[in-house]
Specification:
globular; 521 residues; 7-stranded mixed sheet; 60% helix; 2 domains; cell membrane; alpha+beta
Length: 521
């Protein structure tokens, strides 16, 4: 068998494994958490209202994230006609690309066996399964992080290869308009320049190329400009307060201000090392007692490959540790590089652990098969265990009991909007309406109904006149009409009113057919 054919077969097997692990049960699971509900809803609304550069949520501008991931989901909805499937396809694509890139980098940096280990370590890690099987931005961000790493390593360790460097810069730009931290691969230049200056082995010196290095910046800006330039033009043409507020929010508050002074998920500096890495980087983290001394020996030999990979992992961890806001998934970008750094040592580790121990070797092989088999089976078990999104039944009952009348939302979440089967009325997501505003609206619009959480029900309404619809993780929900008003609540008229309706209500997939009835008054 030729070397090229053997390489293709090996890569094909790894891609098949990635497809089985990440794609198991794909399409069976509904969006369940608030992030998945939000991103699918914004994508469907984008298809309806045609506002590709300024996304909306239930008729109100959605300023929290750049739109590249939303574009990807909307595009997959168009291609497949299945929103419940399309939401998870960007992360599946990222997982396949990451598997191929890690295999190729391991093969080029060391040998084909190291490439196989790099891909397997990446796919076997718990955090890979938890993130790449979710319909969230961080799975899609993995695509741009890995492409950025791939291009930089091809240039800095296997180059010079300026084309790969510019690909890395473009990937950083696209990563930024997926999520602001998409620039992280560029941090690898810091350990690279240190290694060149100190004469470490394995790195490729490229002195006298200042112009070529600096050209990476306009390449990255051009990628960012795919969204930013049309956005600025749109804001300039509209000139309205909402568009200007969106530009300020997305370009300033949701990036630098959120990093420096997070208003949610605040955790101490050591959070990732104590709460995340010991669990989410299993099973790779179990080998650290052997890996750390081995890495120390490699660094003592001035191995530039080890320095760049571990240095970049350390910089990513430091970057997120310094931010006051922390979530488990934030440090996932560091995982592919860590898998590469571990892969080169796996043959040595296996010999150390299992040489002359056939029984132990068989046990290890069995455990590996069980580990991968468990993740594959879980992909089908989870949808059965989780069931349907509870908002589905709540919004179906609300539409039936109210005969499709306008429904005022109080303390609402994205699931109420995503699964709505009738026109919904709200007063802004951030400035959440309370029962006071809802009852005031019903007095002025006696044909409407309101969706009220149990905690607010008896304060403004008569519970005996309310219809209990069901429970979500946050509340028990009731439907009330004007006749349930107990006369105890008063409120000023809302500053803004948004009315939104899916044209094909009842399921997320019905929303991509045509435009939505959405207005802000």
């Amino acid at each position: 068998m030729s070397r090229n054919l053997s390489r293709r077969i090996g890569l094909g097997g790894l891609l098949l494994l990635a497809l089985l692990l990440i794609g198991a049960g794909l399409g069976l699971r509904q969006p369940l958490n608030v992030d998945e509900e939000r991103f699918l809803g914004v994508s469907l609304e984008m298809l309806q209202d045609g506002s590709w550069f300024i996304p909306h949520r239930a008729g109100e501008i959605y300023p929290d994230k750049p739109p590249l991931f939303i574009w990807a989901v909307a595009s997959f909805v168009r291609l497949t006609g299945a929103p419940e499937l399309a939401l998870f396809l960007p992360a599946l694509l990222a997982g396949l690309v990451a598997t191929a890139c890690l295999y190729d980098l391991g093969r080029r940096l060391w040998n084909r066996r190291s490439g196989v280990f790099a891909a397997l370590l990446f796919l076997s890690t718990y955090q890979t399964f938890s993130i790449l099987r979710a319909g969230q931005i961080d799975g899609f961000l993995c695509l741009w992080i890995v492409l950025g790493l791939y291009g930089l390593i091809r240039h800095l360790l296997l180059g010079p290869a300026w084309g790969w460097y510019y690909l890395a810069c473009a990937a950083a730009g696209f990563g930024i308009i997926s999520k602001g931290v998409g620039f992280l691969p560029i941090l690898m230049l810091l350990p690279y320049f240190y290694a060149v200056r100190r004469g470490w082995s394995g790195v490729v010196p490229m002195q006298g190329k200042t112009g070529a290095w600096l050209l990476g910046l306009p390449v990255a800006l051009a990628a960012i400009g795919v969204w930013l330039l049309p956005l600025l033009v749109t804001v300039a043409l509209r000139g309205d307060a909402d568009s200007l507020a969106y530009a300020r929010e997305i370009l300033l508050r949701q990036t630098a201000e959120r990093y420096a002074n997070a208003w949610a998920h605040r955790e101490p500096f050591w959070y990732f090392f104590v709460e995340v890495i010991p669990k989410y980087w299993l099973p790779m983290v179990l080998a650290l007692p052997w890996l750390i001394p081995a890495w120390r020996r490699q660094l003592a030999k001035r191995d530039g490959r080890t320095l760049l990979l571990l240095g970049w992992v350390a910089l990513v961890l430091l970057f997120f540790c310094l931010s006051s806001g922390k979530r488990k998934l934030y440090i996932y970008p560091a995982l592919p590089a860590l898998a590469l750094a571990v892969a080169s040592l796996m043959p040595w580790l296996l010999r150390r652990w299992f040489a002359g121990q056939p029984r132990r070797t068989r046990l290890f092989g069995t455990l590996c098969l069980l580990w991968f088999g468990a993740w594959f089976a879980r992909g089908f078990i989870e949808p059965l265990k989780e069931g349907s999104n509870p908002h589905t039944g709540i919004m179906r009952q609300a539409a039936e009991l109210s005969d499709g009348a306008d429904l005022v939302l109080s303390e609402w979440r994205e699931g109420h909007w995503l699964f709505a089967r009738q026109p919904i009325v709200h007063f802004g997501f951030s400035a959440q309406a309370t029962a006071d505003k809802a009852v005031e609206w019903l007095r002025r619009h006696p044909q409407a109904f309101a969706l009220i959480p149990a905690a607010d029900l008896s304060r403004c309404f008569r519970p005996e006149r309310a219809y209990q619809l069901g429970d979500t993780s946050r509340a028990t929900w009731f439907l009330v009409g004007p006749e349930a008003d107990n006369g105890q609540c008063r409120s000023e008229p809302p500053a803004r009113v948004y009315r939104f309706a899916w044209q094909s209500p009842g399921r997320p997939g019905g929303a991509d057919q045509a435009g939505a009835d959405a207005s802000g008054r």
